[in-house]
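Example for tutorial group B:
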């Protein structure tokens, strides 16, 4: 059997690079030569917090781009060809269960996760989306997180001229900032403790930045918004302190979108009276397979050169995870 390198959640708080057999390509499957796979905070939190029910022994990674090198008969019938450039969803889905039939494939009852931090990805075609033949595979490795941010935009329903703040300018936060800049939102403000990331936010087009470590976030937010607060606040950092201040900087009839994946045991204290008096909304975000075609169409408007901070070889995956935790770069890619 052909062998490949793959990154695994090996044991509690531990990742490892293993050499495993390449899975067989079945009827409706394709084999993808992975080119780039992007690190996500969720990958780290699966190992450190057990989010999404993660247990030791599973492969890691869910944001990838690559080229099809083998296809089963069903995949060929579905229009996939050897040589196609593609991106992947986090899971293959059955398209038969009640969730899939309701258009909510992200909650498929029989979902099979992919393992993107691998030299090859073998998966069902339900997790595979073709991209243009001349596509830059490095840029398109951002497709899956972009899907999540478009989902956030759909749920937030921002009206032109409404004010917005985003807390946390990491990988997903910088992509979300990009989407906010395309949304018609005004006075877009980045709340970020790392000076390099505040500078990145300004370079990308944010109107204001706030350092939560040295500034009073509420006071500065009210100064920026003329005492009204933001119409939309997106919490992307995953910090409990950041989560709890969102209501304080929200305008009347505003919406808080909690985007980050928090520790499963974290329970936020919430004053429902304050929420009631503002007639405010709280929204969370997951993802949706149906958004992939839209993300692919919009990809050329993503400031990928700003967002991708470093590219490292798959063999340095353990070092990449350590570097990711330093929060120096918005997005780190593994070249597989």
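The residue assignment follows.
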């Amino acid at each position: 059997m052909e062998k490949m390198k793959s990154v695994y959640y090996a044991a509690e708080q531990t990742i490892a690079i293993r050499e495993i057999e390449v899975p067989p390509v079945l009827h409706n499957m394709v084999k993808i030569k992975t080119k780039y796979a992007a690190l996500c905070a969720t990958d780290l939190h699966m190992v450190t917090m057990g989010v999404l029910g993660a247990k030791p022994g599973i492969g890691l990674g869910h944001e990838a781009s690559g080229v099809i090198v083998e296809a089963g008969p069903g995949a060929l019938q579905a229009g996939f060809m050897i040589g196609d450039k593609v991106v992947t969803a986090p899971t293959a889905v059955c398209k038969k269960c009640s969730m899939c039939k309701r258009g909510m494939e992200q909650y498929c009852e029989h979902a099979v996760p992919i393992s993107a931090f691998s030299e090859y990805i073998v998966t069902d075609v339900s997790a595979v989306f073709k991209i243009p033949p001349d596509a830059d595979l490095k840029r398109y490795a951002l497709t899956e997180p972009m899907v999540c941010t478009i989902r956030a935009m759909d749920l937030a329903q921002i009206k032109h001229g409404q004010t917005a703040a985003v807390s946390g300018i990491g990988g997903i936060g910088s992509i979300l900032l990009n989407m906010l800049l395309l949304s018609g939102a005004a006075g877009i403000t980045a709340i970020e403790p790392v000076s390099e990331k505040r500078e990145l936010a300004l370079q990308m087009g944010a109107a204001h930045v706030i350092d939560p470590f040295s500034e009073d976030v509420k006071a500065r937010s009210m100064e920026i918004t003329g005492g009204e607060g933001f119409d939309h606040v997106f919490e992307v950092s995953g910090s409990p302190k950041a989560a709890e201040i969102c209501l304080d900087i929200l305008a009347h009839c505003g919406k808080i979108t909690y985007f980050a994946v928090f520790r499963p045991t974290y329970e936020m204290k919430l004053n429902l009276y304050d929420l009631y008096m503002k007639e405010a909304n709280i929204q969370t975000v997951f993802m949706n397979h149906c958004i992939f075609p839209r993300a692919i169409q919009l990809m050329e408007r993503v400031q990928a050169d700003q967002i991708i901070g470093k590219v490292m070889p798959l063999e340095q995956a353990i070092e990449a995870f350590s570097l990711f935790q330093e929060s120096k770069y918005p997005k780190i890619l593994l070249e597989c």
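The mean pLDDT is 96. Compare this with the pattern of hydrophobic and polar residues in the output above.
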